[in-house]
Amino acid sequence: MRYSRKVIVGFIVLLAALMSPRLVFGDDDLVRVTPQIAVEQAQAFFDDVSDEPVTACDPVKMVNSDGESIGYIVRAKRNDVNYGYVVFDSERSWWISEYCLAPNALLPIERASEEIALLASSDNVVALKIDELTVGVADLDKNIALDVSGKKVPSKLSSGGNRGGSPEQFDDVFVSAKDLYKQGYVVDASKTISGMITPTQTEVIKETKTYACAVSAMLAVSSHYVTLNRLKLPDLYSELWKLSGTSDKGTKYDQATGLYFTQGGTLPDRPAPAIKEFCARRGKELETSFVWYPSWDSFRMNTDSGNLSIFSGRLRSNGSGHAMAVVGYVAMHNTYSNAKKYLLVVWNGRTNQLQFLPYDVSIYTSHDGTYCKG
Fold this sequence. Notes:
about 375 residues, Cathepsin B, Chain A, seven-stranded mixed beta sheet, seven-stranded antiparallel beta sheet, about 25% helix, about 35% strand, disordered N terminus
């Protein structure tokens, strides 16, 4: 190999790369995971680890063998000369699977055969993570996947949800335990946390004449850490609405109640500071954080520490966004095929029942997580 490759496992480097204030989100809660955001991530990372000034550019989206979007490969250049890359991989617990900084260094997909290089130069092509050490390319439209030698590899790209087939509403995303067991799935690990106030969407609309899924999620999560009076729901809801800067998205009609109400929209990064201040006013100090493009494992670890989170995603099919309180997780495998399935146990605000949310990020244009610790 012409140059060395370094694997990043340092947590400080991770925080510098992913929590940098240089990461900029849009003006509303329908945030797309854009190549520009990936470039900004990479630039923040390069600024922290490179001894030489380099420029992040040429982001390449990366998917796994199921066609699920899991990250980006972003190039580094110095004086317009290729100078390395960084690979963001949400399936890795430390988020960054590798990086390289060296003169004339190529991206992983550029170091392969002529056939794969030709495919990689066409439109609608992404990097394909074959295993922890191997990256190929895939054409999502043609459902073609090639390894580094240019040979076709088995894939399920067309069923991964990057193209047609994405759910139109979140009710279509949730799965039932009964259906999973019928399909042959058994539980490998699970945990749930109890103890929170969960007023339904109907109750919120009746009592406050407003509704925002993120505010409901913030209320549920906060109620786990501080004692709240359910009878004062209008005041509590209004307080969190204001603390999070939730904006008025217009008036809507709710068929279940027959009432008109104000629909709210909340920026993805606002629940973390709002929950912190809300609980501080009640004598509870919390550590809160916000992460773009979180892994399932990050929610598992937060649950294992006895804490609650919020998951938020925007559907690829229509941009519809929804935020949910995360109270647990389930890891399963199929007894017939040994396929793995990872789910979050969530309260989605619309009913008083907990639901299973498969952690398939390919159905979202973007997703994020808010974490509490206290």
